[in-house]
Design a protein that fits this description.
two-stranded parallel sheet, 10 helices, alpha+beta, about 25% strand
Length: about 350
């Protein structure tokens, strides 16, 4: 409700798509009374219709009026994975003729508010939703599974319980404003050069999601960096256009999702003095921070880790399995655009 009110006050036309599972359960369809696949298929079908309907109306209003539309989904299609094994979820997607990457990346932003059962236990309650029945321990398990399900999305943010509820909501709103560019969005990240990690060991400890990235720099002016990016795996990709201005920890960044056709058109304006950057990115959440580990084909001894922050004074906490050589946030040699010029920096 706060998101809806604040965005409405700023002139947005806001649509809210209520949580489907709550509607279904309170309507009499109990997950304990039917097979799991049947229940989750029911949720998926209803959710898909709701999403398609609301998005269609929002796009129509956006095209025909001066209003800027925002659609808020209380839960998304990928949430089903939180309650299923990968094999079960794959069966669901097969029935729906969908693939996981396209479904996951169809949302512009994913904001995960950690359950009160993890860090604010005294406030955990079932009184605000008759469809819920989880104990605090069950809620913590599902919460972690939900984060793992969405890990790999290009704009996943985890809002923890390190502050009181008002400040938790403030942090959420700041992340949403950043995504919308309201005001100008800023990117705050720290970057570290690390020794080549043991991916198998990391995979055993954390829920890693592997993403293949091809980044192409476009002809740009001196104060603007332009690029396009192909992002995905297993032949399923999403495409993005990005402009960046500024330097240091805080950079002005405007990014938009584009079609494959638009991506191919942008490639015609590629800066031919630079190489394409290809890398395997492993995404995971550690201590409520979203971490991106980049493996480049031209390095056998090194890798780069990036962690996105909500403010410049936020403490950086990295897993002990990552052996940091040095911070390279301010070292222009380790920026992707510099690597497109010269890969022989540390070897």
């Amino acid at each position: 409700s706060r998101i809806e009110q604040e965005l409405s006050d700023r002139g947005y036309k806001v649509f809210v798509v209520a949580e489907t599972a709550t509607e279904v359960i309170t309507g009499g369809i109990k997950p304990s009374e039917i097979p799991l696949l049947d229940f989750q298929t029911c949720i998926f079908d209803i959710q898909k219709v709701k999403e398609d309907t609301f998005m269609s109306i929002a796009k129509k209003i956006d095209e025909e009026t001066d209003l800027n539309c925002v659609v808020l989904f209380d839960r998304g299609l990928i949430d089903a994975k939180s309650f299923m094994t990968q094999e079960e979820f794959d069966k669901l997607l097969l029935l729906e003729l969908e693939n996981e990457i396209s479904v996951r990346d169809s949302y512009d932003g994913v904001f995960h508010l950690k359950t009160a059962a993890d860090g604010a236990e005294e406030f955990y309650t079932l009184a605000n939703n008759n469809a819920r029945s989880e104990t605090p321990e069950q809620a913590r398990i599902i919460d972690k599974a939900c984060i793992a399900a969405w890990t790999g999305h290009p704009h996943l943010r985890v809002i923890d319980n390190s502050t009181n509820f008002k400040e938790k909501m403030d942090r959420l709103m700041n992340e949403i404003y950043s995504l919308l560019g309201e005001p100008i969005p800023t990117e705050i990240e720290r970057k570290y050069l690390i020794k080549f990690p043991n991916i198998s060991e990391l995979s055993e400890r954390y829920s890693l999601t592997k993403v293949n990235i091809i980044q192409t720099y476009l002809n740009s002016s001196s104060d603007i960096e332009r690029r396009v990016r192909q992002r995905g795996s297993n032949g399923i990709y999403s495409y993005y256009y990005t402009e960046k201005r500024g330097s240091g920890l805080s950079r002005v960044e405007v990014e938009k999702k584009i079609s494959k056709e638009e991506y191919l058109d942008y490639l015609m304006d590629a800066d031919t003095s630079l190489h394409q950057i290809r890398k395997d990115r492993y995404c995971f959440v550690y201590e409520n921070n979203y971490i991106e580990l980049d493996i480049y084909p031209f390095w056998s001894n090194y890798a780069v880790v990036e962690i996105e922050l909500t403010n410049e004074s936020q403490e950086v906490i990295l897993p002990k399995e990552l052996e940091v050589i040095k911070e390279v946030t301010e070292d222009n040699r380790f920026k992707n655009k510099s690597l497109a010029k010269n890969t022989d920096i540390v070897g």
